[in-house]
Design brief:
This protein is an alpha/beta fold and 644 residues long. Helix content is 42%, strand content 15%. The protein folds into five domains: 2-35, no CATH class; 64-216, Beta-Lactamase, CATH 3.30.450; 221-309, 2-Layer Sandwich (Beta-Lactamase), CATH 3.30.450; 348-512, 3-Layer(aba) Sandwich (Rossmann fold); 517-643, Helicase, Ruva Protein, domain 3, CATH 1.10.8.60. The chain contains 27 helices and 21 strands. It has a five-stranded antiparallel sheet with strand order 2-1-5-4-3, sandwiched between helices. Strands 8-7-6-10-9 form a five-stranded antiparallel sheet. The chain has a five-stranded parallel sheet with strand order 12-15-18-11-19. Helix 5 runs antiparallel to helix 8 (196-218) and helix 25 (598-616) packs across helix 26. The longest helix is centred in the N-terminal third of the chain and has 23 residues, at 196-218. The protein starts with a helix and ends with a helix. The model is unreliable at 1-10, 312-336, 418-426 and 595-601 (pLDDT under 50).
Length: 644
């Protein structure tokens, strides 16, 4: 009866935790009903592990060598988490918050913040190398998140150790690309029951960003597709990510992808992508390359997809040697970010415009890039940044067309907590502030809502920005690069774009030519092949001629995908791309683009050439392959296709 009375009287979690502590000391058993279920289960584990309330916070002091080795072993996780930790640290600076990163056994790897603000001996327990597992420290956010594998909030006396009662902690696990626990991200402040509830969403958002960054970094050699059932969640921490190889096999998915597809990771991995999309991978990728996004109607959900990443390095390509070694070989690829000199090498007018743009960006002039979708506007923007005086500073890219109109203002300028319904606890720093001291790239600026253009103009004029919902203005020091595929002058004439904003953005204008208008296709192909690590590969003269006649609606982006697929389909010993290495759907496009059906003609010509050479070599397949510069397997395959 007295137990039920105590349960009603002590409704404050901190007070209830103190009562549970007192009862445990007096009776030797943990009373039920005083603690939240997750905390009570953790206290029971702490008791079983032999932890006592009075145990010191520092169970074992790690040596300098141990800490150096620890950080070296977790270098990738530390580097990927650094931007999010910095963001959280600045966001919660006024709350004297400290951001902590730990590994998968709750050992601290790095932290940001002022430990002295905690005003307790506990500050010395928050050093890299200190393990905060439940076995050593009892119930605590780092250790309990590791055991439970889910987010946890522990406030004040809900910690098991007396010495940890000065902390309010919020932790969430960080998963690797395989879904296994990789580490824990934690936000620690002074014990305060009022603020801790608002910390959870900020920490979870940061953890998801870290996981996505790890995912993208891990699959640099493969294709990554982003998707969500709502377009406004693309480019956010909650987008689904799926990595596939060049044959369309699913290599990995993030947790958000599994939730959106309503299937487990085990049921999706190592399956063809078309089991989800219903489309062949080459068809899907070509659609993604030629459009900003693709809508997929699945059985019970509509997904909005974008191609997030191209492979930086292809596998399974033949190594270049006289004997053409067998088996898959990884090839080192050149930088994926070409220099400005290489971009404009074969076009004097473009080269001059790029030189002027580089000088302009170093003299605080805004740059306006204009060109069709896929002409390489972001490539040029990154090259300008990388060769500017701000090369070692942030490069922040924003696609104005991909963000819903209702969210673009908060995305660019940020917002304070409570600025609008649904705003995130703690608010959010906008892209302008994220780019401070570096470069902000506003892609598809022509699609910016007219109402927002006035605010953008004011920010650019005053060089100051204030988040939505009020607050202090922040001085801006950014280089601005904008890009669009639309005719801004026509938009101005139709009153769809502010004339004063246009002149504010057009400090140096650069017109990027469409691929069909370029005269350097062969040089461009050579550069693409070099960046794929396939410098020994050439393109058949007739295929090259067809490329020149094709309209390339997806421009360079489409060409790059076509070449990646073609190189991936080369057999051992092959060193020339022919019609056989192009996907069927692209061949159909080439034929549709030419009334003469050139693609089919090339196939016939190749077969005639093989047969004639076989006759000249008296049926010797090896000699024929050597004479034609192709493999014996290719000859057999082409002859089988003819018979079929």
């Amino acid at each position: 009866m007295s137990y039920k009375l105590e349960q009603r009287v002590y409704s404050d979690p901190l007070h209830d935790a103190q009562r549970a502590r007192e009862r445990l000391l007096l009776e030797g058993e943990l009373p039920g009903g005083f603690l939240r279920a997750q905390i009570e289960a953790s206290w029971q584990r702490s008791i079983k592990a032999g932890v006592r309330f009075q145990d010191p916070l520092i169970a074992k002091d790690a040596s300098v060598c141990d800490v150096l080795e620890l950080k070296e072993n977790h270098q990738t996780l530390i580097s990927m988490a650094a931007p999010e930790m910095d963001h959280l640290s600045r966001q919660f600076n006024r709350d004297k918050g400290m951001v902590i990163l730990a590994n998968d056994n709750a050992t601290i790897l790095s932290l940001l913040g002022d430990r002295r603000s905690l005003k307790n001996a506990g500050e010395y327990a928050l050093d890299p190398g200190i393990c905060w597992s439940e076995d050593t420290h009892g119930t605590n956010a780092l250790g309990t998140a590791v055991v439970d594998g889910k987010p946890v909030m522990i406030n004040g006396t809900e910690h098991f150790l007396d010495g940890a009662g000065c902390f309010s902690c919020t932790s969430t696990p960080i998963s690797g690309v395989d879904g296994q626990l990789l580490g824990v991200l934690d936000l620690t402040t002074e014990a305060n029951a009022q603020h801790i509830q608002g910390n959870m969403s900020a920490v979870q958002l940061a953890a998801r960003n870290i996981e996505n960054r790890l995912f993208i970094s891990h699959f640099q050699e493969h294709v990554i597709i982003a998707f969500h059932s709502r377009t406004e969640y693309l480019h956010s921490a909650w987008q689904g990510l799926i990595a596939i190889d060049m044959e369309g096999m699913i290599l990995a998915l993030n947790e958000q992808a599994c939730q959106l597809l309503k299937k487990s990771r085990e049921n999706l991995q190592h399956q063809p992508i078309e089991t989800i999309t219903g489309q062949a991978p080459t068809v899907l990728l070509n659609q993604l390359l030629r459009n900003t996004g693709v809508t997929l109607q699945l059985r019970d959900v509509v997904l909005y997809c974008e191609l997030l990443h191209f492979p930086r390095q292809l596998t399974g390509l033949p190594a270049r040697s006289e004997s053409f070694s067998k088996g898959p070989t990884k090839l080192k690829r050149q930088s994926s970010h070409p220099s400005l000199q290489k971009v404009g090498a074969e076009n004097p007018r473009l080269a001059k415009a790029l030189r002027m743009a580089l000088k302009g960006i170093d003299h605080d002039l805004p740059i306006l890039l204009n060109g069709e979708t896929g002409t390489g506007k972001e490539v040029v923007a990154r090259a300008l940044h990388n060769q500017s005086q701000r090369a070692d500073k942030p490069f922040i890219a924003v696609n104005c067309a991909a963000i819903p109109e209702g969210l673009i203002e908060s995305e660019l300028f940020g917002y304070r907590e409570g600025a609008f319904t649904g705003s995130r606890k703690g608010g959010m720093i906008g892209r302008f502030q994220q780019a401070n001291s570096g470069t902000l790239f506003l892609d598809e600026i022509g699609d910016m809502p007219l109402a927002l253009q006035a605010r953008l103009l004011r920010v650019l004029q005053e060089r100051r920005v204030a988040p939505l919902g009020g607050g202090e203005e922040v001085d801006l020091d950014i280089a601005l690069i904008c890009a669009t595929h639309r005719d801004i002058k026509s938009l101005v004439k139709d009153n769809d774009f502010r004339e004063d904003l246009y002149y504010r953005l057009n400090g140096v204008g650069v017109q990027l030519p469409a691929l069909r208008a370029r005269s350097d296709l062969e040089a461009l192909l050579t550069d693409l092949l070099a960046r794929m690590g396939a410098t020994y590969v050439t393109v058949h003269a007739e295929v090259l001629d067809m490329f020149r006649q094709y309209a390339w609606p997806g421009n360079i982006r489409q060409l790059e995908m076509v070449m990646k697929a073609a190189v991936a389909f080369l057999d051992d010993g092959e060193k020339q791309i022919t019609i056989d290495h192009l996907t069927d759907d692209f061949i159909d496009e080439l034929n549709a683009n030419s009334s003469s059906g050139r693609a089919g003609t090339i196939k016939v010509t190749e077969l005639e050439l093989i047969r004639n050479t076989l006759d000249q070599c008296e049926g010797n397949v090896s000699a024929t392959a050597s004479a034609l510069g192709i493999s014996r397997a290719t000859i057999y395959r082409k002859l089988r296709e003819c018979e079929a």
